Amino acid sequence: MQNKKKQSLMHANGKPFKVIIVDDEKKACANLKNILLEFVDPGIVIAGIANSTAEAEIEISVHEPDAVFLDIEMPNENAFHFLERIAPFDFEVVFVTAYEEYAIKAFRLNAIDYILKPISITELKGAVQKLKDKIRYKKILADKNTSYTELSEQVSNKVKPIKILLKDIHTMEFVDFNDIYFVEAQGSYSRIVFSKNQVVKEMVLSNPLSDYEELLPTEQFFRIHRSYLINCAHIKKIQSDGSNQVIMKDDLAIPVSRRRNASLLLFLESHDYL
Question: For 115-129, how does the pLDDT look when each residue is reduced to its tens digit (9 = 90+)?
Fold first, then answer.
C-alpha cells in the first residue's frame, strides 16, 4: 500500500507550526482551515480564528502564532492599518485577497506573500512552502521594516511604485527601478545587476526573467535578447560595428538579438532615450 503520510510542518526544534486565520467571513475561515488541514498539512495547528482585527489582536497575543493568514478587507480597519498598528511583530503574514491585478503587482514588487480568493490548493501549498523556507532561514529573512502604509497606498490608491524588494537566503535589498542596470536569465533563475550606494552589486533570484519583464516599468525596461532585460536609462552607447551590443554604465556590454535591434532603436527614440 502506498504511504500517504504527509510531512508535517514543524520547527527545527520539533514544535508544531501554529497559524491564525483572520477573515470577517466565518465561512471563508472554515474553508481555509479545511483546505490547510485536509490538502496541505494535517500537522498544522490552527491556533485561532478571528473575524475582526480586534479579535485577531487578542488571538495573536494569546497564541503567539508563527504565521497569520490575513484577509485584507476587514470591517473598521483593513489589514495594512492593523499591521502598522501592532508592529513590530514576530510572525509571518500571508495576505488573503480578492484584489485586482494592479494590487497583486504591488504585492509581488514588495515580495509580500499572498493567496487569491477563491483559494487554490496549489497556491496555498506554495504559500505554505514559502513559510517553511522562512522558518528555516528565520534570522536572515525576518524583515521588520516592511512599510504596510506604503503598500496600502500602492494597493488602494494605485500609487505608482518606484522600487522592488530583492531577496535570497543571504541578502535582502530594496532597490529603486532607476538603479537596476539589467536582468539576465539563468535558466529558471535571474541575475539582477544594480547599483547601491554607488557600488555595482548583483543577486541571483529564484524567479524567471519573464517575472521581472512583467513587474518592471515597460516604459523604462526593454527585452533586447531572450536572456536580457535592460534599463534603457543606463545605456551608454549602442555599438555600430556590427557586434550587436549595448554598452551600459560601468562599461557592461550586453548582447542585442539581431531581430530586436530595430525595435530597440524605435523604443529608444519613442521614449526619448536617443
Answer: 889 999 998 998 888
